[in-house]
Amino acid sequence: MVSDLCLSNKTTFLPICSKKKLRNYFLNSDLVFETLIGEFAFSTGCLEAMMSKKPVIMNYPVSDSKINYPPILHAKEQWEIEKLISDFFNNPRKYRIIGLKSYNWMLANKCGLKNCNKYINEIIKNLH
């Protein structure tokens, strides 16, 4: 898909790395794709990206309006990802605002890295 969208020179696939290196990657990125494998994906990497004020695209089906979901960009199919990437290039300010909202959501929900596993487990429990 990256080649199809002519994004090879603008895309970095991250290797397994330390949290410090991961934060550096996030701080130097514009947009973060969380793993899009399976029906649902959510990790501490996603929360790290949000703490870095970056918008995150991932398979994140919002199923319960009682839960205060973070401002994540949901995409499951290739066409959904392509649509978000196209919109990102046409509206970069919109995505900077989404990244800032993600960061503010993390602060407002006291979802620092100490609490992130607890929060992830709560979301997963409520999705099933």
Describe this structure in words.
The chain has one domain (8-127): Rossmann fold (3-Layer(aba) Sandwich). The chain is 46% helix and 5% strand. The protein has helices at 19-27, 44-51, 78-90, 92-108, 116-127; strands at 32-33, 56-58, 73-74. Strands 1-2-3 form a three-stranded parallel sheet, sandwiched between helices. The protein is globular and about 40 Å long. The chain starts with 18 loop residues before the first helix and ends with a helix. 22% of the residues are buried. The mean pLDDT is 75.
What's the structural blueprint in terms of helices and strands?
Blueprint: H1 19-27, E1 32-33, H2 44-51, E2 56-58, E3 73-74, H3 78-90, H4 92-108, H5 116-127
Parallel strand pairs: 1-2, 2-3
